[in-house]
Specification:
Layout (H helix, E strand, L loop, with lengths): L4 H19 L1 H9 L1 E8 L2 E6 L2 E5 L15 E3 L10 H7 L5 E5 L11 E4 L4 E4 L2 E7 L14 E7 L2 E5 L18 E6 L8 H11 L3 E7 L1 H10 L8 E2 L7 E5 H4 L1
Parallel strand pairs: 3-4, 4-5, 5-6, 10-11, 11-12, 12-13
Antiparallel strand pairs: 1-2, 1-14, 2-3, 7-8, 8-9, 9-10
Bound molecules: zinc ion.
The site of zinc ion has 5 residues, from loops.
């Protein structure tokens, strides 16, 4: 048999294919690229890791060596100190980090690379579409006119919604059936959602998963006892501080 250039190339491709099929290495990389890992940090802080991108929402009380986990993007819901913490932002901020925040809070983040947003404004971070969503309560603590924000992020059609410090607001009706993972506070103070409003929000938005954040222990316990047993279409997923959960998007969407 003559080893022409063509037969060598075909042989090499065949060999790569056989090795790939035998070892499952390509499948490993495929599966890994379709994973979204969510880590509950503290208060309303979460970290999202998808492909090579790392995104934080409201990073606060970052314990451990987070300098090894720099942010590609940081989303800030509003300027209360347990949501906008420059002390924590400085641990994960690099020259290539983009910070998204409400327009009304942009002056507090002037030293960073920021993109100010208005409620309902849409944008793209790399290949990740996102939408800023209204966030407010009836009280003066989170007034509607501040134009503070929740965020919806879309990972290849798998959607996450972090509502910020919000009450159950009428705007949620337009999200029915559109959210896969819903992050809700269970605070029952400052006119934020308590257990009953959290249950109401879940029944309006109908997410596939609900993850509690920013909760008072007794309010979370009340929600777990009085409402979780009756959830039929939504999976209640409680993460401990620092705990992660990975979604395999291709399989679980
Ligand atoms: Zn707040």
């Amino acid at each position: 048999m003559k080893f022409t250039k063509k037969t060598v190339i075909i042989g090499a491709i065949g060999l790569i294919f056989i090795i790939g099929a035998a070892t499952g290495i390509p499948l490993f990389f495929y599966a890994k690229s379709n994973r979204l890992t969510i880590t509950f940090i503290y208060r309303a802080g979460i970290m999202l890791e998808h492909n090579s991108k790392r995104i934080y929402i409201d990073p606060y009380v970052l314990l451990g060596d987070y300098s090894k986990k720099p942010a590609d993007a940081i989303f800030i819901t509003h300027s209360h100190e347990d949501h906008l913490s420059t002390y924590d932002i400085n641990k994960i901020y690099t020259e290539s980090t983009t910070i998204y925040c409400p327009t009304t809070d942009a002056s507090l983040l002037a030293q960073y690379n920021t993109v100010p947003l208005e409620p309902m404004e849409e944008g793209m971070f790399g290949k990740i579409p996102f939408q800023a969503f209204p966030m407010y309560t009836e009280s003066v603590i989170h007034p509607e006119e501040n134009n503070w924000l929740g965020y919806i992020l879309d990972f290849n059609g798998f959607t996450l919604f972090h509502v910020g410090d919000s009450d159950c607001i009428p705007e949620y009706a337009q999200l029915e059936g559109k959210i896969d993972v819903l992050f809700l506070p269970i605070y029952d103070s400052y006119n934020m959602m308590g257990p009953a409003e959290v249950n109401q929000t879940i029944h309006i938005i109908k997410p596939r998963y609900m993850i509690p954040i920013h909760y008072l222990d007794e309010a979370l316990e009340e929600f777990e006892n009085d409402y979780v047993p009756y959830l039929t279409d939504t999976i209640f997923l409680r993460l401990q501080l620092g705990e992660s959960h990975t979604f395999r998007l291709a399989q679980e969407t």
